[in-house]
Structures are given as C-alpha cells and as structure tokens.
Amino acid sequence: MRIFLTILAFLLAAPAFAQREVTRLQCDGKYSNFLTGYRNVDTKGSYVEIQKASVKVISLIGFDGTYDVSSANEAQICFVHPEDKLVQGCLNRFSGQLQLHQQSKKPRAGDFGGFDQLWEGNCTSARPLF
What we know:
Order of helices and strands: HEEEEEEEE
Number of strands: 8
CATH architecture: Beta Barrel
Shape: globular
Strand order of the largest sheet: 1-2-3-4-5-6-7-8
Strand content: over 45%
Structural class: mainly beta
Mean pLDDT: 85
Number of domains: 1
Largest sheet: 8 strands, antiparallel, barrel
Number of helices: 1
C-alpha cells in the first residue's frame, strides 16, 4: 500500500515538476535604438530562460527583465513585459530566431516607424563553458 501511495503521489506531482522546467538559450544578434540613433549594434552572449508562463531575458540591451507569455504554439512563443505592454517579443521554436521590440508611444515615419527599440537575432541551446 505504501508503494502505491508513493507512486500516486509522484504521478500527481509530475505535472508540477514539468511546469517548472526551464529551457536556457544563448543569443547573438543586433540592437537598434531609433531614438538615440544606434543602428545594428552587434550583441553577443545574451541569455534567455523560458518557462511555461514566463520568459526571462538577461544581458540584452534595452530588454532585460521577466516577461509574461502572451501566446504559445508549436511554432513560436510570444511574450510581453508585465509593466510596459509596449515591450514585446517572439521566439521561433524551430529556427531560434528571436525578435524583441519596444513599440513607440508616438510612431514616426521612416526606419521601423512604430518602434523605439528593436533587437533581432538567433538563439541556440546554452552550453556551459566548463
């Protein structure tokens, strides 16, 4: 009976463990800030942690923070900053292409028009250095 209860407790807890699973990616790409004039600045060594309900962005100019997942399907996961809904991103699950952007409160003509900041790049599985 104890074995049965132990197995039952494990099976009931398994979904909770699956929800805590974290996918870690390292990302390289280009950053643009259309307000300050920075265009296509190379960025390397950024880091993304993806969980079921959140995406954490680390060391990515202008976009560090923890985001709420807004939609997810087989092809992509999209997320939005919980305090500033104008800051959003999407990650392609197959190619690893990541795009983050901050929409402008006052859209302008030219460049990307509706964006104040933009980061585009690719992510791969994070690998420890040692």
